[in-house]
Structure formats: structure tokens, C-alpha cells
């Protein structure tokens, strides 16, 4: 875990979902692979060619913007618009096939939710995000889930983070973004004035109540 910044009085925590609230490399890889395979079928070309085109698209975006981009943004460059991406993800990704309730995560989030407003900000559709936290047994702790279909752009764009802030009704400066990828989950929140914590999977999330033990005041 690496803390980049914490507000003096944090009021809300914005969590990335995949590889943050759970650690399952096989499932994380599946989510990428199933979309790449679907794009290959859609384009009627070999999967290897699609992988190369995605790599080239990501490299081009990185050169032009100086930032790492998401798979969804790379696929958009290749002609898969956001509504299509949302539909594919909703049809192909089934969190309950891969995840189960996590008692340690529930304990950690219960402690955090007693003091802070919690939200999920995911590049999957909101329905997939909700199914994920439901499969993990922690849906009750989150006041908001912001997904790809809420803003029609994916992280690291600003809009998903700004949407979460609006839904929670707190200033960006009192929020902390928590995720496993600096460029996707933390760089933009830091630009927006938020705090930021880089985690290496759910084991670090279990430790967050201790980190925040003396930070901030309980929510009104």
C-alpha cells in the first residue's frame, strides 16, 4: 500500500473494483480476454490481430496524451462504441461465477462505512459493478456505484470520479480514491484535489480501517 495524499478531514472513499475489492487474477484476465475475443468475432479476424491492434491503440493514446488508457478506451478507437461495450460486458461478465462473500472485506468496509461515505467507481457497467459487490457480500456498505454507462467514458477520464462526488454530495477535496492502478485510479483524482491510496489487492483494503483510525470525523 502507498498513500499519496490524505485530506485533513476525509468524508468519502471512492473504490476501484477489480483487483481492489477482490484479488482474483484469473477473473481479471478473463474480463479482458472475453472482450478481446468478442471484438475478434465482431470484426471476423484472429484474436492475435485484435490484441496487436489494442496494443497499438494504447501506445498511440499514451504518446498523444502522456497517460495510460483503459481497454474500453482502446476498443473505442477500434470502433467499439461505449453502448456496445456496455452491452458486451453486461452479457459476458458474470461476477457470481467467480466471486463469493468475503467476511474480512465486509468487516473492513463496515468499519469504514461507519465513518465515511463509500462509492465504487468502475469501468464496467453499473449493473456489473453492483453484481460484483453483491457477490462479495458487501453491497450494503456502498452509497453509490458509478459505472461506464453512467458517464459513457471510462477511467482515467475525470467524469466517473466527478459523478461519484456529485452522488455522494461531498467536495472532491474531502474524498480519497483507492485503487490498484496509479494511472487509471489515482492520477486524475489527485488532479481534482482528492486524496489517493494505491493498493495491491484486497489484502491492503483489509488494512484501511487501521490507516484511517485517526483520520476524519464521522459522517453527519
What's the helix and strand layout?
Layout: E1 2-5, E2 12-15, H1 25-43, H2 47-65, H3 71-77, H4 82-92, H5 103-113, E3 117-121, H6 126-135, E4 144-146, H7 148-151, H8 158-168, E5 175-179, H9 182-191, E6 195-198, H10 202-206, H11 208-211
Parallel strand pairs: 2-3, 2-5, 3-4, 5-6
Antiparallel strand pairs: 1-6
Helix pairs in contact: 1-2, 1-4, 2-3
Describe the structure.
By secondary structure, the chain is α/β, with parallel strands linked by helices. The protein folds into two domains: 2-24 and 99-211, Rossmann fold; 26-96. The chain has eleven helices and six strands. The chain has helices at residues 25-43, 47-65, 71-77, 82-92, 103-113, 126-135, 148-151, 158-168, 182-191, 202-206, 208-211, and strands at 2-5, 12-15, 117-121, 144-146, 175-179, 195-198. A six-stranded mixed β-sheet has the order 1-6-5-2-3-4, with helices on both faces. The longest helix has 19 residues, at 25-43. It is globular. The model is unreliable at 216-220 (pLDDT under 50).
Quick tags:
220 residues, alpha/beta, Rossmann fold, six-stranded mixed β-sheet, disordered C terminus
Q: What's the number of helices?
A: 11
The radius of gyration computed from the alpha-carbon positions, rounded to a whole number of angstroms, is: 17 Å
End-to-end separation: 29 Å
Structural class: alpha/beta
Summed up, the domain count is: 2
- Any idea what the shape is? globular
Number of strands: 6
Oligomeric composition of the shown chains:
single chain
Low-confidence stretches: 216-220
Amino acid at each position: 500500500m502507498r498513500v499519496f495524499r490524505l485530506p485533513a478531514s476525509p468524508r468519502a472513499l471512492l473504490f476501484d473494483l477489480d483487483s481492489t475489492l477482490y484479488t482474483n487474477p484469473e477473473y481479471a484476465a478473463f474480463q479482458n480476454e472475453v472482450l478481446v475475443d468478442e471484438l475478434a468475432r465482431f470484426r471476423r479476424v484472429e484474436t492475435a490481430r485484435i490484441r496487436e491492434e489494442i496494443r497499438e491503440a494504447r501506445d498511440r493514446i499514451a504518446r498523444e496524451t502522456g497517460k495510460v488508457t483503459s481497454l474500453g478506451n482502446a476498443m473505442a478507437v477500434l470502433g467499439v462504441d461505449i453502448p456496445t461495450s456496455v452491452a458486451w460486458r453486461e452479457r459476458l461478465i458474470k461476477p457470481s461465477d467467480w466471486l463469493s462473500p468475503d467476511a474480512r472485506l465486509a468487516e473492513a468496509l463496515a468499519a469504514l462505512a461507519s465513518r465515511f461515505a463509500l462509492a465504487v467507481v468502475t469501468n464496467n457497467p453499473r449493473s456489473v459493478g453492483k453484481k460484483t459487490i453483491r457477490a462479495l457480500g458487501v453491497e450494503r456498505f456502498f452509497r453509490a456505484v458509478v459505472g461506464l454507462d453512467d458517464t459513457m467514458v471510462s477511467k482515467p477520464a475525470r467524469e466517473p470520479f466527478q459523478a461519484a462526488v456529485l452522488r455522494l454530495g461531498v467536495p472532491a477535496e474531502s474524498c480519497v480514491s483507492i485503487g490498484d492502478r496509479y494511472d487509471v485510479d489515482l492520477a486524475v483524482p489527485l488532479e481534482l484535489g482528492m486524496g489517493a491510496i494505491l493498493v495491491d489487492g484486497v489484502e491492503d483494503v483489509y488494512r484501511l480501517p487501521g490507516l484511517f483510525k485517526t483520520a476524519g470525523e464521522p459522517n453527519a
